[in-house]
Amino acid sequence: MAPELLNAQSEHLLRELAPHVLGAVIRRFRDFAAAEDAVQEALLAAALQWPREAVPENPRAWLIQVASRRMADHLRSELARRRRETATAMATDQLTPALDVESESERDDTLILLFMCCHAALTSPSAIALTLRAVGGLTTAEIAHAFLVPEATMAQRISRAKQTIKASGAPFRLPTHHEQAQRLRSVLHVLYLIFNEGYTSSAGPELQRPELSGEAIQLTRAVHNLLPNDGEVAGLLALMLLTDARRVARTGPDGELIPLTKQDRFLWDRKQISEGIALLTATLSKGSIGAYQLQAAIAAVHDEAARAEDTDWPQILALYDLLKRMSDNPMVVLNHAIATAMVHGPSAGLELLNALDADGRLAGHHRLHAVRAHLLELAGDYEAAIAHYRTAAGRTTSIPERNYLMTQAARLSDENFRTADEPCLKG
Amino acid sequence: MKYILMMNTMKAGSEGFPSWPKKDIQAHIAFMKTLNTALRESGELVSAEGLSFPEQAKLVRAGKDGTPITDGVFPESKEFLAGYWIVEVDSPEQAYAIAARASAAPGLGGIPLNMPIEVRPIMAGPPDEFI
Predict the structure, then answer these.
(1) Which pLDDT does position A352 carry in this prediction?
(2) What are A's interface residues with B at a Cβ cutoff of 8 A?
(3) What is the spatial distance between Cα B88 and Cα B91, in angstroms, rounded to a whole number?
């Protein structure tokens, strides 16, 4: 018999409540790792029980109570185990904490949880997985599916991440004002990575995993609601909205990648673009410009062009100039070179790429070859462009991107070098 | 019973996949996508992965202190593993039939490649009485 499924509304409610319930249970029992397990069990119980019975009157209290019972069971068996092992009696008061759920403060623990899940001691994949589970309320199976790994692997990754946090002894409270800026940077970076993985999957046959980019937007929106005056939080949310607005136009009927210049702009999500631009305009007027705000501004310039040829490249170039001064990221230098080529011609762009060859961090990277191929094509050097498209295709690990790059090389070759009796380009 | 279907193909050099005309590349990609969708929908597909081109291949072994020693690249290899499918079917014949479908993927000029596909059973765990 197939279990009855939770409707979308209840599922949304569960996901929204997850971090609040987890916060409440951690406060009571002071054990992040075990509390997180208990909350997952409570969420599963709700997913099974609510469709059959009904959504309880106070769903939050229901979840806290179920999770707390699981916690108490866990502590009881843990205590029994220790008794057997050491024969030392422990105080049993610990097992029966007050369950007056109603008095539980309504404070929002989402931020504290995010700071915890994006702890500096964790690797990015661990921080991402833990954030999605503890704050996003996703099940381990859903996260495993999104990252194309077996569920057991993801369960292990999450469990090790929780052990790392436990070992670090991080207390369950907001970081001090002094630490907060640095810690917020790691949180935003993790959210950015989740979005990116959804927007352009680094592995596998599909270009996009919209469930991940959607989750990243939802989490960033929650942070923005908690810290409405932080320019970079608003900037990141705007960047995600302005980029995600083009999602539908980015792939063709067979899942093939469609570059910005070839997209059907009528497919772009106007509502999301307006929201992103409004957010960005409000935050830019407050001063203190950061890298996410600049990237959002660049995305906005693209989104505002009715046709690719209407793109205000001088403005994009000016924004990349600012961004380049702010960060030492070679990808920024690469995009700066593209903008330069669009304003001052392909050879000016190609000249800037030479600096990246010398830099070393991007030398041999498929993106550098792909951009060089594109600029060489603009410059009319088709033979060299084909060679670089092919090298880039050989080096990317994304199947849609490889298909795209190979198709570009084949197109150029078809147009310029192939004749009826010579099916293949020689050499 | 699970089988692995290993596609050893895509010779390097001027006759390789990357140098085909655009429409042939697109037809090949579309064929593989359709095949994978069909296998997924029939419930036979366990997993399928495409591998990077051999430019990125390295041979690795442990050095004296256990640190990795890498060797490669091997552009001169004539054939390489391009990808694999793992399928779960009731009989070897069904695995062979899937392999034959994949083998006939269109190549240059839309002509079936009839490429060799190595089919091998995947070892299972011990039978129940041993557990």
Answers:
(1) 93
(2) 205, 254-256, 390-391, 393-397, 399, 402-403, 406-407, 409-411, 413-414, 418, 423-427
(3) 9
